[in-house]
Amino acid sequence: MAESKEPTSQPITLLLVGKTGNGKSSTANTIVEAGTLENSSAPFAVAHSFNSATTTMEWKECELDGRRVKVINTPDLASPPLTNDGKIRSPTTSEASKGGKSSSKKPNRPTLTKNKWVESETQRWIKEAKGKPTAVLLVIRCDMRYTAEEYAIFRQLKEELGGNMEDNLVVVFTMGDFLYRDGVDLSKELETVCDELKEVLREAKERYVVFNNKSPDPEDKKTQVKKLLQVVSEIATAEKAENR
Ligand SMILES: Nc1nc2c(ncn2[C@@H]2O[C@H](COP(=O)(O)OP(=O)(O)OP(=O)(O)O)[C@@H](O)[C@H]2O)c(=O)[nH]1
Ligand SMILES: [Mg+2]
Questions:
Q1: Which residues form a coiled coil (predicted)?
Q2: 52 lines ligand 1 (CB under 6 A)
Q3: Nearest to 107 by CA among 127, 89, 130
Q4: pLDDT of 202-235, one tens digit each?
């Protein structure tokens, strides 16, 4: 029988998390642009200034290799969106629209404490991922030192998303262009990194991929996404075997 190209009903859900400016939105765009977008919405906004481009969760669905993939892009939990007088804006309570995001610029929305914002934001991620995403993609730059601040963001994510987030964790190292430019062998480089990053990689069971979101070659980008999906498929297969 011919292999069906119809996407299966349960989408692969990818939740992108990490520090502001690490390249979450750019990586999300590389992923959805490698596939067929279900609607012709604009790409995820990428930061070009000191300010975070992503202030609230947003998502898009695409089809990749015959599979439905839902890409959930998130803001940095350490950088909540602020009003002009420095208070934290609350995310909208309505559902994020398909391929869109909540209208975080609505005037007169109540302000929140930091903890309340984190709680309300992460609950929306979990709801959108229908509980557990197929993979949590922790986005880290590979051209900069990994800091204690960034490790604290990781610990906080673990706390908010639940103790077994690491089961589905994949590290995405962005700025891969710098590695190629400088001829760096990342696997060797990772032997010399700080204990905190080693710990993150250990928790991710050494699952990592490298992304160059600035690659001018669409085929190169598709290859990067393919490698990521391979790693994600292995997680899904292992999980199925465990639940059998
Ligand atoms: N050279 C290079 N630049 C990248 C790469 N990925 C992202 N960038 C740049 O890094 C900056 C931040 O990227 P974003 O994708 O907006 O980062 P983010 O994590 O979504 O940031 P927030 O929305 O603030 O949380 C932008 O200027 C991107 O163009 C990459 O692989 N290589
Ligand atoms: Mg972003």
A1: 187-214
A2: yes
A3: 89
A4: 999 999 999 999 999 999 999 999 999 999 999 9
Which residue among 31, 46, 138, 172 is best mutated to probe the pocket of ligand 1, counting the most ligand atoms within 8 A of its Cβ? 46
One-character DSSP codes across 181-241: HHT--HHHHGGGS-HHHHHHHHHTTT-EEE--TT-S-HHHHHHHHHHHHHHHHHHHHHHHH
Whole-model pTM above 0.85?
Answer: yes
Q: What is the predicted pLDDT for the residue at 94?
A: 44
How do residues 94-129 score in pLDDT, each as one tens digit? 434 445 555 445 556 667 888 888 988 999 999 999
Mean pLDDT score, 69-85: 88
Nearest to 162 by CA among 112, 122, 218, 116: 122
Question: 75 CA distance to ligand 2 centroid (A)?
Answer: 6
Q: Ligand 1 in contact with 134 (CB < 6 A)?
A: no
Helix axes 148-161, 114-128, angle to 10 degrees: 60
CB 11 less than 6 A from any atom of ligand 1? no
Q: What percent of the chain has pLDDT over 90?
A: 61
- 81, two tokens: 């969106």
Q: Which of 73, 74, 71, 72 has its CA nearest to residue 31? A: 71
Query: Phi and psi of 13, rounded to 5°?
Result: -110, 120
Q: Which ligand is nearest to the CA of 174?
A: 1
Our answer on whether the CB atom of 174 is closer than 6 Å to any ligand 1 atom is yes
pLDDT at residue 97, rounded to an integer? 41
Residue 8 has pLDDT above 60, yes or no: no
